[in-house]
Give the backbone structure.
Amino acid sequence: MSRFLRFALVGAVATAIQYAMLIALVQARLTGPTLASCIGFVISAGANYSLNYRFTFRSRNSHAPAIVKFLLLAGAGLLLNAGLMRLLTVIGWNYILAQVCATGVVLLWNFLGNSLWTFSERAAV
């Protein structure tokens, strides 16, 4: 199985968590779509890191530097997600459609960043 396919499977699990939180919080009228999406993003990050470390990248790197890099990259992904969600919902997009768009952008950002930086074998040297 290719690394990108494994990454996409792990992302699907994390995305399901994020979307479940997004929909539950918005439908219950507990918060708006941007904040709900960010809450789901943060909650799903733990599962995302663990599965990517072991399954996607099969990393042998120490957790200490890898998790710091992962959190920095995820933080930037969270900002991308929040910015896109806010922009797209303000201009009138349905929040689910806005989340689908944001998910696609953040997926590419995270795959490239995690491949080239967080879990790179060169990073272990």
Notes: Residues 3-124 form one domain. Residues 18 and 40 are 4 Å apart (CA to CA). The chain has a mean pLDDT of 89.
